[in-house]
Amino acid sequence: MPTPRKSTSQTTPQYRARMRAKGLREVKLWVYDTSSPAFVREFQRQVREASTAALDADVDAFTDAALADMDDWTA
CB–CB of 48/42 below 8 Å? Predict the structure, then answer.
């Protein structure tokens, strides 16, 4: 006979306690719903805008300078 499963309300606190014991901290993040039509429209708008801006020499120079400045960064 199969063992009855514990409910989420029983297992979640135990899981969180185990993870904390390992020195980890829970972080909750909200992210964009990439399947949303509004997200897709805004993404496409920004891509169009970025593609025309990439032709601008000033933007290219700024981007190149920013990327070159990252060489000394450490994690």
Answer: no
b/e 32-71 (16+ beta carbons within 10 angstroms → b): eeeeeeeeeeeeeeeeeeeeeeeeeeeeeeeeeeeeeeee
pTM: 0.43
**Phi, psi of 35, rounded to the nearest 5 degrees:** -90, -5
> What's the pLDDT score for residue 49?
87
Judged against a pLDDT cut of 90, whether residue 70 lies above it is answered with: no
